[in-house]
Amino acid sequence: MTLLVGLDAGTTAIKAAAFDESLNELATGRARTPWRTVPTGAELDPDELFAAAAAAAREAVAAAGGGRATAIGVASMAETGVLLDGHGRPAVPSIAWHDTRGGDEAERLARDLPQFSRRAGLPASTLCTLVKYRWMRDHWPEARNGTRWLNVAEWIVHRFGGDAHAELSLASRTGFYDLHERRTSAEALAWAGAPGGLAPEAAPAGTPMGTSEDGAVLAVGGHDHLAAAVGAGAAGEGDVLDSCGTAEAFVRATAPLAPDAVADAVDHGFTCGWHAVADRQALLGALPSGAELQRVLARHGIAADDRAPIEAAALEIERGDPGDAAARDYHAALDDFGARGADVLERMAGIAGPMRRLVATGGWAAGPAAQAVKARRLGPFDHSPGISQGARGAALAAGRAAGLWDNALQEVT
After folding, report:
1. Per residue in 129-179, pLDDT tens?
2. C-beta neighbour count of 267 within 10 angstroms
3. CA 34: distance to chain centroid?
């Protein structure tokens, strides 16, 4: 039996799913992302990260009936990465994408390279991988031994036995690359003091990247939000994925944008990078919706997993019932983020043209009140019920790397 495994290495957990050749989900696995808290945010040990990913994959394969995976695809969070030394080992810990280190470096980047955002599609901020790398060189002597940077999904694929290559959607989130020329930026790497070869040339998601010890074809599925858009079937030009997790990510697929449009996008609070489908870019905007909804529930002593009754009560408020205090607070938060989401979509349309289709997915899009408010605020949308569409998108990339189908399936599945 053909068994495809998709991994989605996210901030909270690494989710794995096993699929058959028709992309029917057979089983899942899960492991906690092994952060350790530090005063500025969080770090992790890259080897512990791989161990967690391997455990999640084993759990999914075992639950699917055992056997051997035909192909493994990995999607992951962006910005966080692994700095390898000349022996191929991690030189320093990996810094969380949300860690606040690098404020001084970000200010210097904006001052020294005023065209950075226009060329990279990213703001000069502490979020940027280029800034994190410069901070490492400035503060950790061991970082000067680093010779190659791999993003999280690339590192996991490499540890499974694959090549140490870069994938385009993740690479275009680092600041190491020129978005328009699709190659490394000599200017950016020189600014950071990087050695030659730190950022390898990048290949599209689904490119074969070697095989595991067990013979599974390996591939990178891309940035997790973009892989989720592929998994949910929302990666056609003009499609928008509304991914409702702890953070709510709006992912707009678009034809490649000119430098002026990219600069405009960054000025309007978006990032722009290459998508996980060939020859397409993605605008990405985010809201802290899930985290805030969880805080509203916590104020009323309600666990997120036990919110079905308050969803039902909030739906009655949407229909005109006054409701109780908890339901009113929850409905008000849904409505506020619905209005803010509508603003995000409007600003995206101003940059890339009218939206063709909206697809909502993720745990915070599952409730009836959440869906009713979205329909009123955002307009008609399709609901994709899978919680980890990122793992499905990664499995699609793995199947393409194994030759099971061509890139067109990624856009229609």
Report:
1. 999 999 999 999 999 999 999 999 999 999 999 999 999 999 999 999 999
2. 12
3. 17
State the burial class of residue 368 (Cβ atoms within 10 Å of its Cβ: 0-12, 13-18, 19+). Answer: middle
Burial of 26 (0-12, 13-18, 19+ CB in 10 A): middle
**Segment 257-266 long-range contacts (CB within 8 Å, at least 24 positions apart):** 257/281, 257/351, 257/352, 259/118, 259/119, 259/180, 260/118, 261/351, 261/352, 262/117, 262/118, 262/121, 262/179, 262/180, 263/117, 263/118, 264/351, 265/121, 265/351, 266/117, 266/118, 266/121, 266/122, 266/123
For residues 291 and 155, state if they share a domain.
no
Q: How many domains does the chain have?
A: 2
Structural domain range at position 170: 4-226+389-412
Spatial separation of the C-alpha atoms in residues 401 and 221, rounded to whole Å: 10
Residues 406 and 344 in one domain: no
At 315, which amino acid appears? L
Token digits of residue 384: 């994709």
The enclosing H or E element of 153 equals helix 152-159
Token match 């075992």: residue?
A: 62
Q: For the segment 244-261, what is each residue's pLDDT rounded down to a tens digit?
A: 988 899 999 999 999 999
How many CB atoms are closer than 10 A to CB 185? 21
Let me know whether 190 and 67 are in one domain. yes
At residue 197, what are phi and psi to the nearest 5 degrees? 90, 0
Q: What is the Cα–Cα distance from 15 to 24, expressed in whole angstroms?
A: 16
Residues 398, 371 share a domain: no
Summarised one tens digit per residue, pLDDT across range 385-409 is 866 899 999 999 999 999 997 654 4
